[in-house]
Design a protein that fits this description.
There is one protein chain. The protein is α/β, with parallel strands linked by helices and 307 residues long. Helices cover 42% and strands 18% of the residues. The chain contains ten helices and twelve strands. Helix 4 (87-93) links the parallel strand 4 (76-80) and strand 5. Bound molecules: iron/sulfur cluster. Iron/sulfur cluster binds at residues 22-25, 82, 105, 107-108, 170-171, 200, 202-203, 271.
Length: 307
């Protein structure tokens, strides 16, 4: 009985087979770090949705600007983030008194190209994604007629005739996008509906890996910024499978009570999370497991004395 209770207190930590920072964000971060020795550098938007990285940028004198701001009195070097930008924003920022470092991810470029190819072929542009997100703003920025679909309620805005061309924000959930595309197809029988799958492979790999963990874990800890879209998508994926998920930005956010009675914990992270943060969160969970085991041993010791 005693041995069983002690084993119950141990938490097994399982790291997802795919997690954390993707190549697009890594490249954007590396390009930005290479400007640390320059005097006047401004990132146009949030480079990554990660508070630790934002803090590092501030400490190295990198300023924060707004890609959409039409008052472009900023000089020096400006950085377009991995989320990309519309052509109109890109050309507005290009100027002789300014150096533009464009860190747009190649897979975001691919989403732009897919949307343009649909429009060029006469399709009405539809983007499935989070309204107001930097990547989505960039995708629709040159096409005022484009519609952004975030949920079922937005489908009413899609035309009932003609050709409809759909792409997706690169970090959307595969299931959600498939479901919305299907709903558009089934309610627009008179239309030719063409969908180009632009969800990026790192997002797909991370979603698949978290599903695998959800099959046997009692709890999934998702590490990522509270404003990171793909991090919230990972949480939603876990919850949609009936598994419990908690989201943390750093090890200090972990709460011991979450792990009481938990045997298997999965750990994953959004595409803007640093590897070292994931490792330190995993280490903290192991330390919590030890704390719980100590508490159990103390409890069992007291019980023995009482007996
Ligand atoms: S999440 Fe995908 S599209 Fe976005 S930066 Fe990473 S690899 Fe590129």
């Amino acid at each position: 009985m005693k041995i069983e209770k002690e084993i119950m207190s141990r938490v097994n930590v399982h790291l997802a087979s795919h997690y954390g920072m993707c190549f697009g964000v890594k490249d954007a971060l590396a390009a930005t770090r290479s400007t640390y020795d320059e005097n006047d550098v401004t990132v146009l938007g949030q480079l990554v949705h990660n508070p630790l990285v934002s803090q590092e940028l501030t400490e190295n004198g990198i300023k924060q600007g707004d890609l959409n701001n039409s008052i472009t009195d900023i000089a020096g070097t400006v950085i377009i983030t991995a989320h990309g930008a519309s052509e109109s924003d890109r050309s507005r920022w290009a100027s002789t008194h300014r150096k533009v470092v464009d860190t747009t991810c190649p897979l975001v470029h691919k989403a732009h190209e897919s949307l343009v190819s649909l429009i060029d072929s006469g399709f009405f542009p539809v983007v499935i994604g989070k309204k107001g997100h930097a990547e989505v703003n960039g995708l629709v920025g040159d096409f005022p007629q484009a519609i952004v679909i975030e949920g079922d309620e937005d489908i009413f805005d899609v035309p009932y005739e003609g050709k409809i061309g759909i792409v997706s924000q690169t970090t959307q959930s595969i299931e959600k996008v498939d479901e919305l595309v299907e709903k558009i197809r089934s309610t627009r029988n008179a239309c030719e509906v063409r969908f180009i799958d632009t969800i990026c492979s790192p997002t797909k790999n991370r979603q698949k890996a978290v599903k695998d963990l959800s099959e046997f874990c009692d709890l999934i800890v998702v590490v990522g910024g509270s404003n990171s879209n793909n991090t919230s998508q990972l949480v939603s994926t876990v919850e949609s499978l009936g598994c419990r998920a908690v989201q943390v930005e750093r090890p200090e956010d972990l709460i011991l009570d979450w792990f009481i009675g938990v045997k298997d914990v999965g750990v994953t992270a959004g595409t803007s999370t640093l590897n070292e943060t994931v490792i330190s969160v995993s280490e903290r969970i192991k330390a919590i497991s030890e704390e719980l085991a100590v508490k159990d041993r103390e409890y069992l010791g007291k019980e023995r004395i009482l007996c």
